[in-house]
Amino acid sequence: xxxxxxxxxxxxxxxxxxxxxxxxxxxxxxxxxxxxxxxxxxxxxxxxxxxxxxxxxxxxxxxxxxxxxxxxxxxxxxxxxxxxxxxxxxxxxxxxxxxx
Length: 100
Description:
Strand order of the largest sheet: 2-3-4
Helix content: 25-40%
Structural class: alpha+beta
Shape: rod-shaped
Oligomer: single chain
């Protein structure tokens, strides 16, 4: 399975939105609170990874000059476009998708 990286602060906020055991009394509340605390402790103990969000772009053809849709880097077409799966300037993946 491929690794999936998450935003830990966003995850923490989502867990907090679920709330703690404040809707019921007794053992159910205690078990819920313990589970939420355990989840957040596991999250805090995970090693950090140095990752960047993947940007997606495409080459725009303008009079035999190809331009990156993300950063504007351009080059003249001399048969090189098929070698550039990524923009050599900004690193965007050239898979035809535009970032939303």
